[in-house]
Design a protein that fits this description.
The chain is mostly helical. It contains seven helices and no strands. It has a domain of about 80 residues.
Length: about 120
């Protein structure tokens, strides 16, 4: 860092600032459970993959392989678990699950019934 010129430091600072704004927007979107924020999370995570591949091409190290593997696993998890880009039914399936788990019917489905509340007879 000490060997960088002033212009390069300004450019680096602008990039870090832009990434901070991206993360803030992502956090607010996730807080309010917005679908676009899940896509933004995937993009922000996948944005580092080319840099990691470049680092691996430049010089090999076990730590770089582990970092690439972890990031690939996170991207795969986000795609699968959040049903992004139509995987496993996409947003419609996600919304159907959310609707199933919200409301009186969901409460009635999970509430204890009378037969579960009576103590078992001891014979």
């Amino acid at each position: 860092m000490f060997s960088l010129r002033g212009a390069d430091l300004h450019l680096l600072g602008a990039a870090v600032g832009a990434y901070a704004v991206l993360e803030l927007v992502e956090a607010v979107g996730l807080w309010f459970a917005k679908r676009w924020a899940e896509y933004l999370t995937l993009i922000a995570t996948a944005a580092f993959l080319p840099l990691e591949v470049y680092e691996l091409i430049k010089s090999l190290s076990p730590l770089k392989f582990i970092a690439l593997g972890v990031n690939l696993a996170i991207v795969a998890y986000l795609l699968y678990a959040k049903r992004l880009f139509g995987i496993r039914g996409g947003g419609a399936a996600e919304e159907a699950l959310r609707e199933r788990d919200v409301g009186w019917q969901a409460l009635e489905r999970t509430a204890p019934t009378a037969d579960k509340l009576t103590p078992a007879s001891s014979s």
